[in-house]
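Figure 2 data, in text form.
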Amino acid sequence: MERKERTAQKVEELFHSPAAGKEGTDPEFMQILQGYIFGDVCYTGSLDNRMRELVTITVLSVLSTLPQLEAHVQAGLNAGCTPVEIREAVYQCAPFIGFPKTLNAIQAMNGVFTRNGISLPLPEQGTVEESRRFEEGLELQAPLYGTEIADKYTWLPGEFAQAVPRFLTQLCFGDFCTRKGLDGKTRELLTVVMLAALGGADLQVKSHLEGALKAGNTREELVCALVHASGYMGIPRLFNALNAGREVLA
């Protein structure tokens, strides 16, 4: 199949619409965009449409590009992602991009859900009790990352030497990773993509690549996710992530 045919097929699968033609103000740009993302990248590697859309939704949430996020929430639904899976992919961005940007992404996502007749709020996915946030978070964190953060930040003054690692365990792992809706393997893969899209987080990219492998992802799946993200986060951030993780991925 020629690239134009691949592009048309993938755009129809994801958006239920034809690929870009000569219409609009910038048809040449849209043809280049769609040819790269939907004609080249989407046909390279093992990830299916559903996982690729979760990757895309994650990157667009990180970048806070809300019109494109809305389009890909719809594409995610079309690709077979459940509303809960999409919501969990957006929710778990919060510790990495902050709560305000995540709230913006949630609003954009919920607008798409509403237009699709999906009742809100979605079913609750939380599993952890308030008093168990640290213990249950640590149960998920320790097998993947050990005591790396606690060991690195013993130099912090006063109560912060214990508070900072504790907050990370309680928030990232206790509040979010204990939730249902996405399995641990998927959450770790999406975390790698998040960090790559952020830029300037090379140490964390390497650490989370190692964690993602321990969670069951293959090297090929992780590279595929990063390459897929390149059309949204840019080629430099792809190469930064690949270089940061070279020892892990090679």
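Caption note: The chain has a mean pLDDT of 97.
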